[in-house]
Amino acid sequence: MSLKNVLKRNSFLLIVVLTIASCNKDFHGVGASLLEDQSFTTQSVQLPVYAYQDAIEKVQTNGLPLGQLGEINHPLFGKAQAAIVTQLQLTSNAIFGSFTQTREDEGDEDNIQVIQENERVTEVFLEIPFFNNLKDRDADGVIDAFDIDPDDPQSDTDGDTLTDLVETRAGSNPLDEDSDGDGILDADDNDTEYDQENKVYQIDSLYGNRQASFNIKVHELTYFLSRLDPFNNFETPLAYYSNRDYYEEGFYGATLYDGNYTLSFDELRFNYTEDDPETTEVDETQQVETRLTPRIRLPLDTRFFQEKFIDKEGQVELNSQDQFNEYFRGLIIQTSNFSDDLYMLLDLGGAEIKITYSYDSYNLNNTEDDTSDDTIDREQRTYTMPLGGVQINTLKNSFADAAIAQQIQQSEAGIPADRLFIQGGQKHARIQLFDPENDVLGAELNRIREQRWLINEANLVFNVDPSYDPLQGGGLPDRLYLYNYKTGRALNDFLSDQTLNSSVKNGDKYVYGGLLEYDDNGRPKSYKFRITDHVNNIVRRDSTNVTLGVVLGANTRYIEPKTASLGLLKGDIKYPTMGILNPFGVVLIGSHPEQAQLDKKLWLEIFYTEY
Prior knowledge:
alpha+beta; eleven-stranded antiparallel β-sheet; 10 helices; globular; disordered N terminus
């Protein structure tokens, strides 16, 4: 056989071997053997790993991308409760009405319109939006959550024989067979009179019973929240932790709202308050001026904001953001007395307080040279203060099952876990793949290094413990996250994975994995991580053989580590942000289960080619 044909048959082998040789000289020597006819054997092996149960005492919860509020009960993890503590932000110079308080007090000889404006608060609302989803894959005007077929623009969601796309273009409601409610179906109606701008929303990130009623309270915060750490000469940001309850510690002042509440998921629509006399054919008070996405909307104490805010116009308390934060230190938002479990992840980035006030305005009535027809009218404006600055989640967990404490104690004694309890912001696991000081794990690493293996794929598979009902306590998390336990940082396999499945919630990085998988009967089965690069690095270099951590997963953008404390004697660790963002939990089969669950134990699964 010619050299040309030999090289053609073995071109794949040549590339593989040259790659290995460039990385690790111990695998294979480059020489005449490349030209020999060699056969490959692809095999798989399950290698033991050691898993340990951990729990944190507290975790840093300032600077999170969302706010948690509510209460949910889990038969194993116990009761999870969340409250919000937040500062407020001045959006601009605090000038109310048309003129500064100084100009009002001094008057203006050259401007008759400068008068005392007598600002009075008429209403104050705290608004915290829900996260919502308006994804419409087929662009037919109906969001995927309500579309009978989200991939077909010719589908007919309301069953009135008109497709969703046709109705959207015609201005009728594709979610209602009788858009204008006149008793005539849209297919036979020549005038549907449907407001196309009206929207329906898919509300995300609410767990439990959305119809549950509960008590919600808003208090003035009296504790000063510093942005910078006074113990480090105010040179670094100050960390705030989940275990502090500022209300129980007594750092609260006036009660701004206290009432029973039930969520609404309707779009908020506000009509014009006045009719334009120049448009006689249209009554603007019947037309929508402002539309808001669904949200929590609470009326706050107007007298408090009159005295605490509006009456302070022109005074030092409102001169700067720092002075304002020292004066008006923020809010405590808490809930209680739920009729049923309800836990909310809320959009604090869009939350704000709106202060509507009236004031006197001098009206020249377009006759600047004639004061006889001048009037003083009451005008109305709204000042908006976003929630911002330092924002903290108080997170509590109580009444957890004793089995969790038992696993923690065994792990502290160096005994690998038979079960792993993973809970957001509370419980996590440590995984040791190879440990030179462990006879079993060290021997496996040495064996791999001695073999002529090309590792094609390495997976860490966590099986869900079927002993526990996965539907209780809000269901199972859609994702887990595996990371470098020492640094809190992502593994290379995670960072290099650019895949995205837009049809699945949080479906990016699906090659790396961590997504919940189901069996043929639709029951939750396992979470799998592909860590091929990580394992190959360990085989080549001892320095990369780090302990791994497992926490609850969420949006994979939120991987930056926060500081968490394991307790006074155990010290601090780095904890990924996404592990804090919801309270739910899952029970996994550990690395050393009982005999009955040996077939589901935690293994490192390696697919390799032996040559």
